[in-house]
Amino acid sequence: MIQSVGYAAKSVAASLERFEFERRDVRPDDVVVEIAYSGICHSDIHQVRDEWGGAIFPMVPGHEIVGYVTAVGSAVTKFKVGDLAGVGVMVDSCKVCSNCEADEEAYCEKGFVGTYNSKDYEGVLTRGGYSNNIVVAERYVHTISKKLEPKLAAVAPLLCAGITTYSPLRHWKIGPGKKVGIVGLGGLGHMGLKFAHSFGAHVVLFTTSAGKEADALRLGADEVVISKDAEAMAKYKGSLDFILDCVSAPHDINLYLSLLRLDGTVCLVGLPETPMEVASFSTVVNRRSLAGSMIGGMKETQEMLDYCAENDIVSEIELTTVGELDTAYDRVVKSDVKYRFVIDMKSLNA
């Protein structure tokens, strides 16, 4: 077994604390990654605090992982020791269902194995990236271009926030001639804004925070709307082709459905812990659609990482340490971070 150390939540009410555990021995198709940086996703907080239910403790969170390969199994072909590598939200899937065969492992019919707070198909609890290392089958490990190495900490959130926004924008064919709304300028929203702008769409950023207007414009918004301003919102009624809703707090989805033109779609990627109420007329008028999207599959996630390398796209981050996790979590909940915390895993040894 491989000795590991990380930070874990041992119960719903507890602060994360140092935790020693073991990872499996290297199998022929495994890659061992020494973790350099691990992003803090809002879903880490939801799961540590059991806001979605199903939490398994002790829980080592983290699914935005970048680092360096330290060992490979005998059958591995994509990686060698010293390579940059990334691990995202999943570490296994059934590989044989129609969705897996279509490179859509995120929608595995058996259910993919999450990087943490999940049990693999042998019943072993997975533990995530708030740790010094991780052992993952090669299929679920991503290559990272050397072009991104100088900004490696800012690459980590691409493994969740990046692909979570890239995938629906590609699926709904966002590009020139499309008018797109991005709701929320946080960890997800700022990446959705960067991608939609890079794809050539006209992008309208909706935020409750007047203080974020300048940042939104800097990151690629063509227009910024304060969503608490009813008069300002009314001007966009029936005008947008697509809206990517990145907000994880409860909010009125009907307001955004009203902004869609004929056959427009609101796609949810934020995950509030309470159900939303959708009024019937919010969808039947203008034949509007309300949809959702998860992360992408392995092929699409690699495509996204390669696109980011070629177009110099990374996340906007604040570095933090394992000793500051409680503060970081509280600030994420308050939307007081620009725009993603990333843990420097060297702090494990401090």
Question: What is the fourth-level CATH superfamily of the largest domain?
Answer: Medium-chain alcohol dehydrogenases, catalytic domain
**What composes the largest sheet?**
7 strands, mixed
The percentage of residues in β strands lies in 25-35%
Mean pLDDT over all positions: 96
CATH architecture verdict of the largest domain: Alpha-Beta Complex
- Along the chain, the helix and strand elements come as EEEHEEEHEEEHHEHEHEHEHEHEHEHE
CATH topology of the largest domain: Quinone Oxidoreductase, Chain A, domain 1
Number of helices: 11
Given helix and strand content, the structural type is: alpha/beta
Catalogue the unreliable spans: none
Could you provide a short overview of the structure?
This protein is an alpha/beta fold and 350 residues long. The chain has helices at 42-48, 98-101, 152-155, 161-171, 187-198, 213-219, 230-234, 253-257, 280-284, 298-311, 325-333; strands at residues 2-8, 17-23, 30-39, 65-72, 84-87, 90-92, 113-114, 133-137, 142-143, 179-183, 202-207, 223-226, 240-245, 260-268, 289-292, 317-320, 340-344.
Task: Offer a few descriptive terms.
26% strand; 11 helices; alpha/beta; 350 residues; globular; Rossmann fold; 24% helix; 6-stranded parallel sheet; Quinone Oxidoreductase, Chain A, domain 1; 2 domains
Write the layout of secondary structure elements.
Elements: E1 2-8, E2 17-23, E3 30-39, H1 42-48, E4 65-72, E5 84-87, E6 90-92, H2 98-101, E7 113-114, E8 133-137, E9 142-143, H3 152-155, H4 161-171, E10 179-183, H5 187-198, E11 202-207, H6 213-219, E12 223-226, H7 230-234, E13 240-245, H8 253-257, E14 260-268, H9 280-284, E15 289-292, H10 298-311, E16 317-320, H11 325-333, E17 340-344
Parallel strand pairs: 10-11, 10-13, 11-12, 13-14, 14-15, 16-17
Antiparallel strand pairs: 1-2, 3-4, 3-8, 3-17, 4-5, 5-9, 6-7
Helix pairs in contact: 4-5, 4-10
